[in-house]
Input
Amino acid sequence: MDRREVVKRSAVAGAAGALTLGPVSFADAAPGADGGSGATQTRKVRGRLPPGAPDYVYVPVEVPPGVREIAVAYSYDRPAVPEGTVGNACDIGIFDERGTAPGGAGFRGWSGGARTEFFLRADDATPGYLPGPVRPGRWHIALGPYTIAPQGLAYEITVTLRRGAPGRTPAPVYPPERARGRGRAWYRGDSHLHSVHSDGGRTPAEIAALAREAGLDFLNTSEHNTTSSHRAWAGLWGDDLLILTGDEVTTRNGHVVAMGTDPGTFIDWRYRARDNAFGRYARAIRRAGGLVIPAHPHAPCIGCGWKFGLADADAVEVWNGPHTPDDDIALAEWDNALVAHARGERDRWLPAVGHSDAHRDPDVVGLPQTVVLADDLSRRALQDGIRAGRVWIAESAAVGLAFSVSGPRGEHAGIGGRLALPRTAPVTARLEVSGAPGCTVTLHTDQGVLHTASLPPSGAGTVSWPTTPDRAAYIRAEIRHPATTPGLPGPPAALTNPVFLGRG
Output
């Protein structure tokens, strides 16, 4: 079957461009290789997408009654391209008979480019896909031609239907929203990492074990454009580890971590910045109880750079995995936003967080980790702490930190707080650090770096600096290792959110 000709153009409101091809029917399909009884039927679909094809191409599949399982395999060509020209890359997923409309009522799974085949049925599914009944009707295989070579992208899709008793879908078991915790305390977590349910190489069990080894108190599931892992953590949480559910909404114009959404919540990703749709989906994340956190906003990979602005964000990821120059760009951009808030140009300021984005060995879970002051170890308390900016970022649990600013009469404000004193009042910033041997402390203000100090060889020390609100609208701390690349600062061991000074 050749699907070179597009037979229908689909204009999906508020979404990136899409094409829907002619339907694949199984009315006269030949039996598959595993029997002549008609219990298995297979169709192949071939086609070619030209450069400039829409972001999503839907291949309808007419599923008849009595189907127990649908299986899909696909491949596409990778012709040689001139130097500096992108080649072919194509994602895949599937929607059931409820359709492909924005909001995802029919969403049944997405593997991006991580897999070449998948299956789903009532009692089981490939990671990345949702188990459930294979009901009759028009399903849609979703192709996402991420990049297309000048020669075009030739694809082949093999669809196999297996008939039989439908089976029963097990009720999902989701993680609880609260762990025992330590009351009001600083809790360490990693809210951006990947398992086999998207493009990661680790199972949820392996990630949970690594999180405990890293000294983490919480983690957040964040697979690319799928919620299939939400039900995959049964037996892995405990009094010592809270598991939040979310995902990494992976659009063509940037990625956003939806942290702590209600289990099973689908957040659509099929739009670009030019569609002016992101605000709608950011509100959907919040309605589902989650935080909106743009991820690696200046990462150089195709589609990773954040193009939606920060007006709809609750926090921003300024440190993603092992530190790289694009993290320093994100940090500088975030600091500029702090200055704008201090000048009164922004009503609120945006807290900074850090996550590992770990996928597989040798990626380190908890490098970095977000450390949150929360009233207890629960979804709501952690989110409240992040929204308030009671957050600092560490390269590992070996790094300890306490940072505050005090006034002349015992007034005090910690990370994320404000010390409301007259502009000429004397204040003292105090930073206590441990676990950072060979590092240098810098104290940053709206004027830039105004104080620098070296830590002793033990890596533990206290740095104090006197100033006034007139001289510093805010103070934040960075603890960095020696530089490894000429002309660039050394990688951080820790970063803090600011303490603001003055009456605001």
Summary: The first helix runs from residue 204 to 213.
